[in-house]
Structures are given as structure tokens and as C-alpha cells.
Amino acid sequence: MKRLRGLVGAILLMGFGWGGALAETFDIFDYTPPQGWKNSNLQGGVMLALQTKEFFGTIVLYASVPAGNDPEQNFRGEWKRLVAEGLGLSGEPTTEMGPPNGDYQNLAGGLAASQDGLNYVVLLSTFTGNGRVASILYITTDEKLFDLFDRFNSSLKLSKPKAAQAPPQNVARPPSNAPASARSISTPTTRFNDGWVATVENGFVRVARGEVVVLLHYGMPLPENMWVMGNEQDRVNYYWSRLVAPRYKVDELKVFKNDTCYFCLYFGEGSATEVATGARKHVALYISFDKGLGYAIQVVAPSFAAFQKEFPNIEAVGKMYGYNKFAVKAADLTGKWTSSSSAAGQYYNSITGAYAGMNAVSTADTFTFNQGGTYSSAHNGASGFVGSQQFYSQKYQGRMTLSDWRMTLTNRFKDQTETFEAYFEMTGAGPVLHLIRVDAKGIHYRLTRE
């Protein structure tokens, strides 16, 4: 443990001036990879690895994620996600607060482990700032790498997260160069069994039941200067001023304040007067963030009591985005639809702790639907440990039929007929086609028109 404290201190008390030009950029990190280390891209990260017969060492830089302003809370969340759950290690880490790196506060912690006489160290270094937390994970069996870790940290420079400026319009809109036919669908209304009715409108999906109306706004970027710590009020105000204020004059906007949080809630509400009619309403706004975009859900109810009846808690408002769902018609499908995805995982020997390689999966799928009810599809991918991956390529063509939110495709694998749940999700760039295998829910294609 004394040795571990020395390592933590070495990482935290470093300077920021390792000589040489910065060679790589990932997410908010600028860094210089150690010479001779293998560089691999992961889903949501970059891994640098060195393995010999005597020892191994790994450095993993993870993409920053939205977070609150408490470095200790963020460290605990990242430790649970990346070490306790990701590596299966138990025990409390030794932690120490470090000096800031630009706008980011550093907090590092580590754990020394021993299995079958083999000693190794896991060190997690987190950086909290600009409304995000970014993490670096270090693992080694040899203390000779401690100095290299120190020099690697010395090369780090952290920048502000990149986010596009929001458009001046009140709502996010589809790209102007996309044809109207690519952004519209034949059935823009869905009547759900529980009484909610969803309708596609310009810039959002309107969902209503009784006197309660919910607007599911499409993704809108958050300006770069809004990615700051402790900004629940600022973020809610930003979206409220663009989406709600033009139509409703609020008496007092009450914004939910997170105490400490890893995945924070952004929610505001208040009694308001409708500008056009003078009618009194209760208005609420819930915002979730994904890949730099804010997805706002606006609720308008005749009273606070009516709002509470439909939404007893904040999380219930967030679930309303599941009503962005519309039926698929053959006329909407003609053309090519594509998707691609990738994922990777690192493996370590559960007995020795030694690095055991990286397993990666990547897929690319294309569906072409023709007039007259025929289709063709191509599915390409690779899976397995890097260096010995297995590749596949499959092509099919046959008949396509639609009925009751389902799509049936003939001549699939081994000439079988496959049935999919089929629906459209509307976005600012047009519809996303969801195809989910009825007998294998894990097969879920999310396709956009090419």
C-alpha cells in the first residue's frame, strides 16, 4: 500500500511539459503515446498496450461523459463502472486530489492486488470540468512502468468539449438540403392503446392524452460555453428560452437542483400563462443529453394537479420519448437504408491479472427496398480477438411484406423467413427505421436513408 501511495503521488504531482510535439488527439485529450506501445481504437476509448514475457502494461483513455461538478462523486462513479464492474475488482481505492489541468480538476486513486504471488496495480485518474468527467485507466505488473506513466501524464493537455452552436430557430430543424420526401412519412399519427396520440409536427413529435400535451423536441446542440460545472439552471434556461418562453410566460421557473450526481437530471417547471390565449397552464421541461445534443420533452397540463397525476416523478417524463413511434408503409421504404456499429472489450486473466487481448465486433448493414415488394440486403462484419478476427459477408434477396407493425422478409439465413417489429422514429434529419427480430430481440437494426 505504501508503494501504491507513491504511485498515486507521482501521477498527481507531475508537471505539464514533457518535451516533443503532441502526436495524438482523442476526445478532450491531447497526448503523446509511449514509444513502442500498440495503439488500438475501442468503442468509446483508445487503448495503449505493451506486453512482454515478464510484464504487461496498459493505458486506456475513455471518452468524456456528462457529469456533475463533484470530482469525488465522479471518481466513485467511474471507479464502479470501469474497475469494480469492468475488471471485477473489489476493495476501496486509495485516492488523492491533484492540481487542476486547465479547466479540469484531477482526482486519482489506485488499488494494489495480488493473486498467486503476482502483484499488480490498477490506477484510475479522472478529470472533472466543463460539465463532464474524463478517465484514464492504468494497469501494470511492473513498477518499472511507474515512471513511464508519470511521463505520459505529463504530456496530457485537456481541451473544452466540442459542441456545435445552436441554431437561432426556436426548434431544431432538418437539414435544408434534404428533400421533403426523405424527412416525411405516410402515417404521421399513431394512436396508442393507453390513449396517447402521437403526431409528427415541424421540429417535434406532439403526444396528447386528454388535456395534457407533450412535445418531444428533436435533438438541439448545446453551445460550448454551456458545458460548465454546476449549470442545471443555465442549461434549463437555455432550452426553456427557445422552446417554451415564446408561447408561455412563466410566473417562476423552478429548476430541479442535483445534490451530487453522475448522470444528472435537467428539469424545470412552473405555472404559466399562454401568450396567445391568456389561459393558465402548468409547463415542465425535461432535457436529456446524448452525443452533444439536448433532447427536450415539454409538458403542458391544465394544472399542477393534472401534471402530477400523469407524471408522479421526473423519470416518468423522460419515458415519454418512447412514444416517438410511427407505422411503416411500403411507400416510405423505397431506396437504400444503412447502419453501422462497433464495440470492443479488453480481457485480463482472472488468476494472474495479465492482459489477455482485446475482442472487437464491427458490423455494417444495408437494406434496399424496391417498388413491387422485393428487397435485397447485405451484412458485413468482423468479430473476435484483434489479430485473429473472423470476417463474414452475407447477402439476401426476396420478398418483403408489411402488416400490423411487422415486416416479413423471405429467403433469409438458410432460406428461412424472418419477421421483424418495424417502426419509424422521427428525428430532425428524417425517419430512423427500426427493425427488431421478433424471435431474437437482440437483433435490432437502426437504419437511416442513404
Automatic annotation (TrEMBL):
> Domain of life of the organism in this record?
Bacteria
| Protein name as it appears in the record | Uncharacterized protein
* Bias type Low complexity, positions: 172-186
Which residue stretches belong to region Disordered? 160-186
